[in-house]
Design a protein that fits this description.
Length: 298
């Protein structure tokens, strides 16, 4: 009986983790923490750090769950998403809605109590933009959906920054800009690999509306732009030489991946570029954090 209960519990946990898009949420929380660390002039208190991260994480889980709920019919048409919990009827739409409302409410309350009203408002705004403006409108009506809607996904480091300072400062906006410019080549790489699914579902992703060759060119252009943007922390002395060197190396890797994608026709090349973009963002923000720690200790 205990074994059956354990299996049941693991199964339900996996469903809710998938609804909350735990991989994306985990990467997002890393950028939140880096934003907090770069904004702080002294050690971050346990209350501020732990509960702000928990609150923002819950809001992100809510946004992911709402995305599953609002797109479950579309998900059932695409190979990439047809095995998600709702298309597979592993959970009811009613339970997903309740879960999403509960996590968003509890998360926003935590953020407000742990940090400040500005951070709470920005969390709420990001939730609305991603869950409704992007998911319900932009994604279905414009090939620039990722570019415009990417702003909501770029806010996490700013949330960390404002949680500490209570202000929107240039340093926090630069972190937003990095993710904002990173988002198109990241998602367009995946869209190239899954363009058949998007075409079948009538989703106007760039590879569907403008062709794969044009999308590859845009990926390379955005990657080159990202290289310049990612060096802004060093240019305003928010980071030091450790970050400069590692950022340059990471950008060289991204440019090589984008250039290789431009030449190759294999779908696996697009997936490799997509995976490298994840690695790139994780390592870039990790290096920002390490560099800040080194500068603080010297």
């Amino acid at each position: 009986m205990l074994k059956n209960f354990t299996i049941y519990l693991i199964s339900k946990t996996q469903i809710y983790l998938e609804l909350g898009k735990w991989r994306v949420t985990s990467l997002m929380l890393i950028t939140v923490w880096v934003g907090m660390s770069l904004a702080a002039s002294k050690p971050i208190s346990l209350q501020l750090g732990l509960f702000t991260l928990l609150g923002i994480g819950l809001v992100a889980i809510s946004a992911g769950s709402l995305n599953h709920l609002l797109e479950y019919r579309l998900d059932s048409l695409m190979k990439r998403t047809e095995r998600r919990p709702l298309p597979q009827k592993k959970i009811s739409a009613r339970h997903v809605l309740i879960f999403s409302l509960a996590t968003s409410l509890f998360g926003l309350i935590l953020v407000r109590l742990a940090s400040n009203l500005l951070t709470c408002f920005l969390c709420f705004l990001s939730l609305i933009v991603y869950s409704f403006i992007y998911t319900l409108y932009l994604k279905k009506h414009t090939p620039q959906n990722i570019v415009i809607g990417g702003l909501a996904g770029a806010t996490p480091p700013l949330l960390g920054w404002t949680a500490v300072t209570g202000n929107i400062d240039p340093g926090g906006l630069i972190l937003v800009l990095i993710i904002f410019i990173w988002t198109p080549p990241h998602f367009w790489s995946l869209a190239i690999a899954r363009h058949t699914d998007y075409a079948k579902s009538n989703i106007p992703m760039l590879p569907v509306t403008h062709g794969i060759a044009f999308t590859k060119q845009q990926i390379l252009l955005y990657t080159l732009l990202l290289t310049g943007i990612s060096l802004l922390p060093f240019s305003i002395k928010m980071s030091g030489y450790f970050y400069l060197i590692t950022a340059l190396l990471l950008n060289i890797g991204f440019i090589v991946a984008a250039a290789n994608l431009l030449k190759q026709t294999k779908p696996t090349t697009a997936i490799k570029t997509f995976h490298y973009s994840n690695f790139y963002l994780l390592m870039l923000f990790a290096c920002l954090f390490i560099d800040h720690s080194l500068m603080r200790n010297t």
